[in-house]
Amino acid sequence: MISSVQMASKSKWALILSAVILIVFFLVSILAPWIAPHDPIQVNLAIKLSSPSWEYPLGTDHLGRCNLSRLLYGARVSLGFASLIFAASLGFGLIVGMLAGFKGGWIDLLLMRFCDGVMAFPNLVLVLGIVGLLGPGLWQVVIALMMVQWVYYARMIRGMVVSMKEQNFIAAARISGSSTGKIIRRHLLPNVLPPIMVMGTLEMGWAIMDISALSFLGLGIQPPTPEWGAMIQEGKAFIRSQPELMIYPGLMILFVVISFNVLGESLSERLGVKRRY
Amino acid sequence: MSLLEVKKVTHAYGSLRSFWRPQTEAEVLSDVSFSIEQGTCMGLIGTSGAGKSTLGKVILGLEKPKKGQVLFQGEDLYTMNSQMRRQVRRNLQVVFQDSYSSVNPRLTAEKIIGEPLENYERLSASEQKRTIGQLLEQVGLRAEDMKKFPGQFSGGQLQRISIARAIALKPKMIVLDESVSSLDMVNQTNILKLLDELKDQYGLSYLFITHDIRAAYSISDTLTVLEKGRIVETYYDKDEIFTSPQPAVKNLVASILPEHPRNRTIANGKHFVQV
From CA A145, how far away is CA A257, in angstroms rounded? Predict the structure, then answer.
């Protein structure tokens, strides 16, 4: 049995390390146009599949595009759109969860049965179905992922609101003359948000995996825009001669997703949040 | 006119509505009537499940009863307009049993006690701070404690904070829902003493809801016994409770442990204890 002190210090380093890695990735994705050595979609067949050099630190791909630049720009797509999906599903989930939890009755019943319905499908299958309906493209993927992810937030928030609504401090606030808006702002949101942030970091990891997976399948981002999943797909043809074309973007996905997971786990440990949904 | 009048209140909780079976209702309060005068304390005694807490909620305006009326200063709580209701709210405060769950763990004592003040008094920041400091001292804590979070207080101290919040608006009446039941004997006695002092100081009225006949006896002027949602009897002279012929009341009285263990026998209603 690890003592709580040891555990705290262990999770502290994990927290710091994963946070630093993610901050670096976010900075890279913001600063990509300035730090990338080349235009990521500039084709130059004369130098295709070249090995690393000073000019092209990670070599070039089958169309002679700079691998490093493509990886850096790829961070933009993955992190940017994962953040967008996170924010949108959190916002929508918050509204629905609060409404269902606070109002109760048939509104609650209706909304939650709908969520159950969505959750009954394996996520990726449902996303594939929606993308199939909307047609391939990054925005379609983003919309599909949002449509699937908000239910998890909604359900969790609804559960927390229902259990918190019974707590005496909410009744006491009401008796103190606070309006419903004030009770939500002051008592519900601050207590709901920490566990949701934990869940959000874990979901970010999933969103990045999903975006990459769909791009790999050719349903997400369309060429020539650089994206890690799409890069793996393009490098697939050269798996014997130049496996690094797949390894580099694969490592990127690995690092980011692991960092999000470690961050989420150590946050949940620190905030004393149990994972549930 | 009584300060609070409960008239023929009947309330029931429905089972979870389901498509498959019809909703059933369990009556928790039936035909409950009593009144509380300004400046007095009524002890409402009952065993678990007697409907005490539901009655507390109904009186606080949190749970609309199926039938009956709750009149506060002669006005019906559940039919008055929102402005009146706001005024009633300020005069009708509460202290709950579980002191840990009655305060938001993420707010400091200052914010907790300040909440009713913000909503009604609109004081300047420094004035509010001073008032909160005074309130804390009044309930036996220090003014510096206002910066602390609930996790840094003991259960008894948190209960004092809840009391400070309840008296912040100088209400006419406070519902004490098992307010001392979860505290140890020493703390119970201290809080009861504090409540008694505050009552004299502000001319407060209390509805003291409890299962503890001794605590109720020590603070109340009148006693009411509730059993299975019905009022068994009301004693305007609280000593009458010890001579009541009602079996339910006899049982309650018999459950008090005599001070000396030698005098203790198994209480089954036949045995009668003199206090």
Answer: 17
